[in-house]
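Appendix B. Extra example for self-study. Work through it before the problem class; the solution is given directly after the inputs so you can check yourself.
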Amino acid sequence: MTSIQELLKDTKVLAVLALAIIELALVWFYGGAMLIPMIPVFGILTWLWKDKHITILALFIFVFIALSSFGFTYIKTGGEKFFYAGIDFSGGTRIPVLLDTPVTDPTIMDEMIQTIKQRASSFGGLGEIRVRAIGNSEIHVELPNSDPAKIAEVQSLLAQQGVFLAVVDGKVALSGDDLFPGTIGKIPSQYLNGNADWGVAFSVTQSGASSFAQIVNGKANYPLLMFIDRPTDSILLISKKDLTASTLAQRDVVITDDEALSLAKKSLELDTDPIELYLTDDFDSYKDTLVPKTNKTKAIISSNTSSEIKSALRSKGFTIIEKTDDDMSPKYSVSRSGPAASNSVNEWPAIGLLSAPRLVAEVTNGIPNYGYTITGPAEGTGTQRTINADMNARKIDSILKGGALPVQISLGSTTTIPPSLGSDFLRASVIGAAFALFAISLFVALRYRTPKVIIPIILISVSEMIILVAIMGSFAIDLASMAGIIASIGVSVDAQVVVTDELRKKDQIDPEKKLEKAFSIVMTNALVAIVAMIPLFLFSGLVEIIGFASSHILGSLLGVLISRPAYGAIVEWFFEH
Amino acid sequence: MVNKLERKIKTAYYMEIPNIYEGNYKLLIALPLALIVLSLFFIPKMLDNKGVDFRGGVFVTLRTNESIDTNMLKEKLIEAGFKEPTVTSKDMAGGSKSIEIEIAQDDRLARAEVLKVDFFDKLDQASLLESELLTNRSTQAEYNKARTELNAIADETFQIAGSNQRADTFTNLNVLRKSISESYVKINSDYQAKISATIDKYVKYDNLSSDVVSANLSQKFISTAVWIVIASGILTSIVVFALFRSFVPSVAVLIGAVADITIAMGAMGLFGVKFTLASFAALLMLIGFSLDTDILLTMRVMKRKEGTPMQRAFEAMKTGTTMSIAALVAFVTLFILALFTQIPTYTEISSVAIAGLVGDMFATWCLNAVIILWFVEKKEGVSHTHHSHPHGTHIAAAPAPKTSNLTSIFNKRD
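Solution. Structure tokens for the complete assembly:
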């Protein structure tokens, strides 16, 4: 018998333990999904070394890390849950948004997701909205809410474009209605003049052209503040830290706190509907005089603002719109050598300010013009520069189109599950999984009638279930993945039956050889099972059943690489003692 | 005493089943063939019994403790103008009921979807022509034509949305676009609101979950599913051919799998299991399950040498059925859970899996085995009668001397 001290002297054991510690750290940072790459790593190691102790140790490590991942999730969610559940179990609504033309460029897809997220969160009161791409022609929006009115709100938001507004010196210079959507487009690089790296052209209507000419008359070098969904009837509360956060990151921008404050205030000006700015640092000095203008006045604040300020605002009757610190920090564009009028906030997501190009002298002479271009420089060199130019152009293009999603989308589908039903489903599923384990154990017990087989099979089944729940629970467990996990247990026992039956054969063949034969069958079975299910991933998009396929495939992989070898080793160990 | 009983059960399990392959095994093929013919009869019914995933529409599940007149509810839904509604009531554990309401894809909704795509296709062109008009009058006719087409699409959308707007009153295309987007959303939300209003009016419930699948989404599901089936078929065939590198056994294995899926689909038709994404996934899983046993059989019969092919086939059958039963145990548990909870995903996956696993026993051990045995016999040029034993005699070879601890443990009790 090998003692623990001896085991620890073994370099292989030490290597595996070191891997386990790395893995534990990965799971802490990135969740139980990190167990997936470990399956082939440990699988290959155990296969190469053919060391029974390592094989068993590997399974033990997997179970240990899986259990730890539940603990990690529990800590990270503040004691709320041990794993993440999809709307099937947690309740909520899923709105699959179909894209009328597939989007193959990942950056465009990413922009669309960001656009949807940003616009949905501007609504407020919907809870945490999850937006993710499903293949290249579908985006899923999930909200933890099953109220039909809220769902309709989100649907209308998804179907419509944002409201484009361009402000110069506190006055509306252009609105979305003034632009011809069909004319907005990137200028091919050969038509760009001067030292511009990119350009976007657009045409404006007759009335738009004349009002624009009038408003910008004599405003050369002024910024054209381009907004999408600029908040109406709102005030903004910001900390000094957020106000100047970006000046620290942008090395070329050196401005004082006072300058930052005045530029920020300038960007909030609008004659018909200004947004007032307050510093949260001095909240006590003005809190008594602060009153909402209407019963719908919104207060835009960072989600990190102290809860006293939030509740004080709420009690005064403000509707709170929370933004991340990132969105709250304005980005400045300041040049010491250029004219002072051109200094401004360049980007401020919290108020929908997305870009601020400067007006060139030619357009500020008061003469209406139907066609305009916005051009600019790009960063980097070589292909990097081309990519950056393209990105900048696309951004302006999308802003002018009202933050429109680059392709048309269709709605009309929803899945709604009330939270109470979801928790019923979860309870039933947990009981079901426990019963499945029990039933299979009973069957195995009746079939083999020796604890030396029964105990290992039950041990392995429980381990696999724990590991699969940990992996699937790092994404979101739904009904389909639960069914897949229960099925995997059936398949796993299935394979152990093959191994056991092979070993039971009464002939002179060496048990090692028998194990090998059995494994060749088990491996083939797993291979076939995986191959049959893999197309579900190739044509992703069937989210409703992808959980089933994933847990089934993961179960097969886990079985063949980790738990079946461990089963062989455990059975052998049992017989040796 | 206990030991004796145990032995008896054990013996009953392993020993007293006669080897079905001794004698004229080719007759066995009649069983799966009959099942397949029967299944082919029921498959159209199964393909017809699509859930909302594949045919579009609305699927609402209510949980309630009250008793509900399903016929009345159905009548009311028809009265309210819903297409082909069905209402079924299912008992759950604890006396409460699960009411399932299904409504077919609404034609107007489907039409609105088409119109919306059309509108946005033509919008940019019309807008471009409009802007050209500012500087160049010669494109007037072209613009008028584009605008008339756009107006026709818009007017039809407005009509479906029940709004009395008229497209030709919009001077600004941006405003028209906004109105169309609004109408499109209104058509969808009005429809859903009408469903919940109708249900709320006649039924009291604890909670309601709904699944709405638009025509576009169901189309997408179908085409994706078709591609998955094709890819899965090709990939598994490649793997099987690579494994056996011999035509007849490979084809036999694939026939076994196809037969199994056919039987499972037939059973779905017979027992009215809905064809949904969940049951589709289960069918896909059956490919793996059925190939499992097929491969076990083929490998044991073709690649091993101990005993006669019939003995090897029978040994494989014992292992194979144990495997299938183990998997069955898991799915029967899931099925029982589904009976208590009426969770459709569980009902569909478990019933398809159960049907497939049972069907697989016939497909593998009566169809695939017959083909393989016939092939091996032909190849080896020996007739099975040379090796046949009277029914009920020993199946395995005589007890072997102990070779190691490992084997001896398994043999201890025999």
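Self-check: Residues 164-230+352-401 of chain A form a domain with the Gyrase A; domain 2 fold (CATH 3.30.1360). If your reasoning did not lead you there, revisit section 3.
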